[in-house]
Amino acid sequence: MLTLRNITKSFNSRILFQSADMTVNYSERVALVGPNGAGKSTLFQLILGTDTPDEGTVTRDEWTTLGYLPQEGEAVGEETALDIACGRGHGMVEMEAQLRDFEVKGLVNEPAYFELQSKFDTLHHPEVEAKAKKMMRGLGFKEEDWMRAAKELSGGWVMRAHLAHLLVLEPDLLLLDEPTNHLDLVSLWWFRQYLKTYPGAILMISHDRDFMDEIVQSVYEIDGKKLNSYTGNFTKYLEQKEAAYDRAVIAYRNQQKEIADLEEFIDRFRSVASKASQAQSRQKVLDKIVRLEKPQTPRKIFRFNFNQPQKSGQRTIILEGIHQAYGTRKIYQGLDLEIERGERTVLVGPNGSGKSTLLKILAGEIPFQQGQRKLGTNLKLGYFSQHRSATLEPEATVVEEVMRACPTLREDDARAILGSFLFRKEDVYKRCKVLSGGEKSRLNLVKFLVDPPNLLLMDEPTTHLDINSIEGLTQSLQRYEGTLVFISHDVHFIRSLATKVLHINDGVVTSYAGGYNYFLEKSGQIDARAATIA
Questions:
Q1: Environment class of 125 (CB within 10 Å of its CB; exposed 0-12, middle 13-18, buried 19+)
Q2: How far apart, in Å, are the Cα atoms of 81 and each of 137, 148, 403?
Q3: pTM of full prediction above 0.90
Q4: How confident is the model at residue 256 (pLDDT cuts 50, 70, 90)?
């Protein structure tokens, strides 16, 4: 279906790929992995034809249709969410114009014309709207939101509409770039189940380990400018990679010993008449050896021990009779909640159900109309939000900001921690005022880890992190001795940390005194949701 051969690609004089190969077969599920900046999104652009390789070829079977979900949604006009899912509006006008252009030029036998015509026909099928609504239900849209103007929706909901559109088209090859970023847990579960029976092939970039374990059958890793293939899901890939590294190290050491032995014999006997012919023979052997490159040590999970916080009282924070509304929209009415010391609580529920609002009420970030918020004794509260950049000193460098948060930290240790959260080399000397939103989010996260409060409230802490950084954060929080309340859509992260689940829906908070698997077993709400959209 898709073949990449001898691909070489440079970006700003940096070589991303050199003689790299990849094959995606019909109905295959493939993950593309590698550290941030390795070239994953660039490879997608090569496949899409929006960029070209410096050398090599990208070949797609002539009659294969392709669909692409980028990380960020396209700008929208006046169309509704349902229009996007159905492919109506500006996109349809463009498609018609492109088809006419092909026909005027007499290119109706071209594969590109066939692909465009196939998508056009799919979107004009009489059942397309019914199929689009089914996909939108699965992805968490309420019926009252179908006809809302897309420009009134958040970027995450617009992305869901685009994803629904792709699933309606049902292309032969789906290219998905971080498809789970904007999904809540229930929508994520539905999407995962849907992809398991998807009739086409899937090539995805994802940092969601659990999602890849459930879906993919093979993994391509960008490593050393090559595309290395592994059979199995993400966990199997990790096992195979470790075994392959061990074999490569043994082979390299054996070859180095062989080379050293040959060189020693040659140097010792090349001037000895009786041994000269043997030395010459060994020189020929040495010259023919294809030298192995020294294996690069795999990037490991960074482990560090930070200062543990002072103990709080047993009851860390209490909410009594909380009423919260935005205009006429009521979020909570008479909410009672108590968080106890040592609990690791995850807030789950559909997008828009009030999870972030509850976290902000706990943090004291927003006022509420009625009720009381009581703090326990010896409480030091920290609130991590992706959008809190005001706490950063604009003129301070990244490493100075971390050391300002924890004055006892040595600079070498600060740089090591920052490196594990994707601040590489000279990045640590950037001034905070020039950082991107993602970099500011990661820097705030590091500041919390080096000087943790005894009540830590975290809203989507794994966003902007790669898989190794997520694992490093997970292990750090597993050793954290304080109280944790968090929101996340990363199932592996949740399973690794949560000891209690609060399910939030329509202003009702239901507590499950167990981990995420216990919640799934006892709630039954995912199965009920699936039954309504099957």
A1: exposed
A2: 12, 6, 46
A3: no
A4: very high
